[in-house]
Write a structure and sequence with these properties.
With 143 residues, the chain is α+β, with helices and mostly antiparallel strands. 31% of the residues lie in helices and 33% in strands. The protein has one domain: Aminopeptidase.
Length: 143
């Protein structure tokens, strides 16, 4: 991800999430140490993105795929790239939080080997719970 990608990233963020990150949040991520910000492009168009940070344990802070590009392996490839970063950084686990009501995302993460480790009550500003998911071992990226 570069600053040139931010208009499209913010556009996707606003279309996908009820509490979207601001442009400033993504810009801060681009400049933050121990952070990786990636985009997935299809025909030179940003169709997905990932922001991950951490040291020892990587936290997937934000991941999204445009609705018209879902079920094409983009999210899986973004997580695989995150795993590559984790391996090169010496990290041995990944974690994330997801809205309890987001069954589709939870199923996606479970399919990638994440397991629910706890629930944070009232995590989101609307009072919704966050499901914390983790994968202890970094797997080999798909071919």
């Amino acid at each position: 991800m570069t600053e040139d990608d931010l208009d499209r990233v913010v556009e996707l963020e606003r279309a996908i999430f009820p509490e979207p990150w601001s442009r400033f949040c993504f810009l801060a991520g681009l400049r933050r140490p121990r952070t990786i910000c990636l985009v997935a492009e299809v025909e030179e168009q940003v169709k997905g993105y990932l922001v991950v940070w951490g040291n020892g344990e990587l936290h997937i802070a934000n991941i999204a795929v445009a609705s018209e590009a879902r079920r094409q392996g983009i999210g899986t490839r973004l997580v695989a790239a995150c795993e590559d970063f984790a391996r090169s950084s010496g990290c041995r686990s990944l974690c994330l939080e997801v809205r309890e009501s987001n069954a589709i995302a939870r199923c996606f993460y479970e399919g990638l080997g994440f397991v629910q480790t706890c629930v944070w009550q009232g995590y989101y500003s609307n009072g919704e719970n966050a499901v914390i998911m983790e994968r202890k071992a970094i797997r080999v990226a798909p071919g």
